[in-house]
Design brief:
This protein is of the alpha+beta class. The protein has two domains: 338 residues, no CATH class; 106 residues, Immunoglobulin-like (Sandwich). It is built from 17 helices and 16 strands.
């Protein structure tokens, strides 16, 4: 082997790539400004139902504070005196169980309605939907149709534009302020609140909440509208967990509608291989959240049915069958079910269980409200004097009783005690409590000295209406010192 063959081979030159010139800096916006939606007015069955719910909900909201029950407001949540008046009922903070029951019933109702037909609450009864509908109606009456509103917003500022915009906002603010005033009227007697407003003597908290609620109504219904439903409301995000393939939703039938294309009424669309959708985009123009239902179910859809009304109107004009866009289920659409088949499947075990549990809860809560004892008693030991020897050689414990009269009539209550031999209660005269009032009473329980062993003994303090009626027994501890 030659020496040259044993010589080490020199390393090849390493080529280090030269980095390419970095790209020019590019600003990426983390927020894409939304395009303003101009919903088109529509007529139809679901639009009428929607307005019926607007009238019903606002009749209740605006009207309830002005109803009287005897000499007081029928519905009043008096936080200052910790009384909650619901027509003939007087509730105390101790009746929190009824509020809990109401919240459970509301949640279960939401589950039931969503399992049956999706976002019915959102589309017809949600305050955001209701007030947005009212504000859009005002906007339409002042600024005109969808086309007129778009043209007005695109024009430069003029006297006509200034007057229309100012007039619209004045009406919006008036509705918002009346809404805030009504809201506070559920916590402060509304007639007193109105008188205080006219005399400019409203309290600072009342002024704050009137303006806060008015501002929220004005901002949410006048400006944010669909943004609240799409981005702020959590219901839109977790609704899919309550949907299944047998939930009624607003759906577009692609089997009938595709391929879509514009055409005249006299065109034989079947001969041309077209579907029934004429691509008029009315379903998009009437949508309050601005979606295209033809792209399938989207979380932004609030199930209001406006697109159903618009499409049915077009189908009638084209002499096509109604229902290209309709309330249907995924299984019903795939299987081409009849309405009878559809409803039999909608009323499935899950829905029946929800409905049965909801009915039991409602009945149970109503029975509990009717059968509740209109008397509340709280027992608090007087820690300043645990036990003492009183006159006559008796051993005495002192308590403080809060007696709450949950009726609207003055009542007299007698006190008694049970649990130890020879136990006596003072005062032994009836305790008077005014209508819907609470009174603290100092109560002394005494037993003969030496009649009980040292330690803590359980006794019952009984409070009952004089002459029979409501009766409550509360446990207490009687201490016998060593």
């Amino acid at each position: 082997m030659s020496a040259s063959s044993n010589a080490p081979t020199p390393n090849p030159r390493r080529v280090i790539p030269i980095a390419a010139e970095p790209p020019a800096e590019e600003a990426v916006s983390l927020y894409a400004a939304s395009k303003k939606i101009y919903p088109r007015a529509v007529q139809g069955m679901f639009a009428r139902w929607r307005w019926a719910m607007v009238f019903a909900t606002q009749l209740v909201f605006y009207g309830l504070p002005w109803l009287s029950w005897g000499e007081r407001q029928a519905v009043l949540f008096d936080l200052a005196s910790r009384r909650f008046y619901l027509f003939g009922l007087v509730l105390y903070p101790q009746d929190l169980i009824y509020l809990s029951g109401l919240l459970v019933i509301s949640a279960l109702s939401l589950f039931l309605f969503t399992a049956v037909a999706g976002r019915l609450w959102c589309g017809y009864a949600c305050p955001q939907t209701v007030y947005s509908e009212i504000f859009m109606w005002v906007e339409q009456k002042i600024e005109g149709s969808r086309t007129a509103r778009m043209r007005l917003d695109g024009e430069p500022l003029s006297m006509e534009k200034l007057v229309k915009k100012a007039y619209k906002h004045i009406v919006w603010i008036a509705i918002a302020m009346w809404t805030g005033f009504t809201f506070v009227g559920y916590f402060t007697p509304v007639r007193e609140l109105g008188l205080a407003f006219l005399q400019t003597q409203m309290g600072s908290w009342e002024v704050f909440w009137v303006f806060f609620y008015a501002f929220a109504t004005y901002g949410n219904a006048g400006f944010m509208r669909e943004q609240v439903c799409k981005y702020m409301c959590p219901y839109a995000r977790f609704q899919s967990a309550m949907f299944d393939r047998d939930t009624l939703i607003v759906t577009y039938d692609p089997g009938r509608g595709e391929p879509r294309a514009p055409r005249g009424r006299s065109v034989d669309y079947k001969a041309r291989g077209l579907g029934e959708c004429i691509d008029c985009d009315l379903c998009v123009q009437v949508c309050p959240t601005g979606i295209d239902i033809r792209q399938g179910l989207q979380y932004e859809c609030i199930g209001c049915g406006q697109c159903v009304d618009a499409c049915n109107t077009v189908m009638e004009k084209m002499n096509y069958p109604r229902g290209l866009i309709r309330y249907d289920t995924v299984n019903g659409m795939a299987g081409h079910w009849s309405r009878a088949q559809l409803w039999r499947r909608v009323l499935r075990p899950r829905v029946l269980i929800y409905a049965s549990v909801l009915m039991l809860l409602v009945v149970g809560m109503l029975v509990s409200l009717v059968a509740r004892t209109p008397l509340k008693v709280d027992v608090v030991r007087d820690r300043a004097s645990l036990a003492r020897i009183a006159e006559g050689g008796r051993l005495e414990n002192v308590y403080r009783l809060q007696i709450m009269n949950a009726t609207e009539r003055p009542q007299k209550y007698r006190l008694a005690a049970q649990g130890l031999e020879g136990i006596a209660v003072s005062p032994d005269t009836p305790v008077e409590v005014g209508p819907a009032e609470a009174r603290w009473v100092a109560v002394r329980l005494s037993i003969p000295y030496g009649s009980a062993t040292p330690g803590s003994h359980s006794v019952r303090i009984e409070v009952g209406e004089e002459g029979g009626g409501a009766h409550v027994a509360e446990k207490a501890a009687f201490l016998v010192p060593r």
